[in-house]
């Protein structure tokens, strides 16, 4: 059975981009794979964070993973900081990663500009931590949204460099992972600007729909979302990014095919389409929200899931770490 690994940071609310770009794909493929899915709380401190929120957001995200349909027979769910091997491998890989590989990362450049003087070393090192997250579990596939593609490429570069430096030519120590990026939903766009991706860090709440938004909030956001003056909705017209984005949301959340949605909506005005989209989003999120509430009401269960996850994850991660250290020539701990 092939293995899958992925994670999301516990920073703020999950939105439809996180769901459609990542989590929904984990859930859909889960029975084919052996899945390791974690909460990236070490990544969550690469930008200034609020200590009072970190643990709470970690539990919220774990509950959302389960509410979205991850099931424990196929998936191991754990918290990154509970498995120290992630931090330790990061140090080892730091020492073989050329600095300019990191300063070239698009996401670093974007985030660093926004932070001004307040850029910590952790923000630069974020992709090496991500590479460690991945490589410890030797996954075949890493399902992520489009924005993580460059970090996956860096991970592959690190693997090749490590194996070149420390492995025998036909016996690689680290395993090359493949990104798994679905076309549909890989880049959900902002509701207020169809040319920008939906993001947790957009200052406007109106730009995104969160998985835990109430029906009223969802209705309000869709009512106010950006449209265009053209009548009739269409996919794939670069002049009409909002039309493409909202139709894609409708398609993915209604479960209809692209052809069905095209036929249904090509003659609709926005005034007719918006209520339809609103109802579809509300109905799609309702079961997730109900399940989320039930899980949050049972803290003991959630803790047992994460405790179990930590043990299963650690067993795999520690083996890889030991292999890496042996290849680099470390003495065995006494
Ligand atoms: P983050 O919120 O940065 O922790 O992202 C968690 C996961 O959601 C990653 O796999 C991202 O690629 C994915 N993701 C984030 N924003 C979007 C978006 N607007 N569209 C599609 N996927 C996204
Ligand atoms: N950097 C990812 C994001 O922001 C989250 C993440 C951390 C991740 N480590 C990972 C995703 C390992 C996949 C694999 O979305």
Automatic annotation (TrEMBL):
InterPro entries: aa-tRNA-synth_I_CS, aa-tRNA-synth_Ic, Rossmann-like_a/b/a_fold, Trp-tRNA-ligase, Trp-tRNA-ligase_bac-type, Trp-tRNA_synthetase. It is found in: Cytoplasm. Keywords: Aminoacyl-tRNA synthetase, ATP-binding, Cytoplasm, Ligase, Nucleotide-binding, Protein biosynthesis. The keyword Protein biosynthesis applies. L-tryptophan binds at residue 133. Transmembrane segments: none annotated. ATP binds at residues 9-11, 17-18, 145-147, 188, 197-201. A motif ('HIGH' region) lies at residues 10-18. GO terms for biological process: tryptophanyl-tRNA aminoacylation. It holds the Pfam family tRNA-synt_1b. It catalyses: tRNA(Trp) + L-tryptophan + ATP = L-tryptophyl-tRNA(Trp) + AMP + diphosphate + H(+). One of its GO terms (cellular component) is cytoplasm. Its main location: cytoplasm. PROSITE patterns: AA_TRNA_LIGASE_I. Belongs to the class-I aminoacyl-tRNA synthetase family. PANTHER family: TRYPTOPHAN--TRNA LIGASE, MITOCHONDRIAL. Homodimer. Catalyzes the attachment of tryptophan to tRNA(Trp). This is Tryptophan--tRNA ligase. The gene is trpS.
């Amino acid at each position: 059975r092939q293995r899958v690994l992925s994670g999301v940071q516990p920073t703020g609310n999950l939105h439809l981009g996180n769901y459609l770009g990542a989590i929904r794909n984990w859930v859909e493929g889960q029975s084919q794979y052996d899945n390791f899915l974690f909460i990236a709380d070490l990544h969550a401190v690469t930008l200034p964070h609020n200590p009072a929120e970190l643990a709470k957001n970690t539990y919220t995200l774990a509950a959302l993973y389960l509410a979205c349909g991850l099931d424990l027979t196929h998936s191991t769910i754990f918290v990154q900081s509970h498995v120290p091997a992630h931090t330790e491998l990061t140090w080892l890989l730091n020492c073989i990663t050329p600095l300019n590989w990191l300063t070239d990362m698009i996401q670093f450049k974007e985030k660093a500009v926004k932070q001004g003087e307040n850029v910590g070393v952790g923000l630069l090192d974020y992709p090496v931590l991500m590479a460690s997250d991945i490589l410890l579990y030797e996954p075949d596939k890493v399902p992520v949204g489009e924005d993580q593609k460059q970090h996956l490429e860096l991970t592959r570069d690190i693997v090749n460099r490590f194996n070149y430096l420390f492995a025998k030519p036909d016996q690689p120590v680290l395993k090359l992972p493949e990104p798994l990026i679905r076309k549909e939903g890989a880049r959900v766009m902002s509701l207020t600007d169809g040319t920008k991706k939906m993001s947790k860090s957009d200052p406007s709440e109106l730009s995104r729909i969160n998985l835990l938004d109430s029906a009223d909030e969802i209705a309000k956001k869709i009512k106010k979302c950006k449209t265009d003056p053209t009548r009739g909705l269409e996919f794939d017209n670069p002049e009409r990014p909002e039309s493409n984005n909202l139709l894609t949301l409708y398609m993915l959340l209604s479960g209809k095919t692209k052809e069905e949605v095209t036929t249904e909506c090509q003659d609709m005005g926005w005034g007719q389409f918006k209520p339809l989209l609103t109802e579809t989003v509300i109905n799609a999120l309702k079961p997730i929200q109900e399940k989320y509430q039930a899980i949050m009401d049972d803290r003991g269960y959630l803790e047992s899931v994460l405790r179990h996850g930590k043990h299963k994850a650690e067993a795999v991660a520690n083996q890889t770490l030991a292999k890496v250290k042996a290849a680099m020539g470390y003495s065995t701990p006494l």
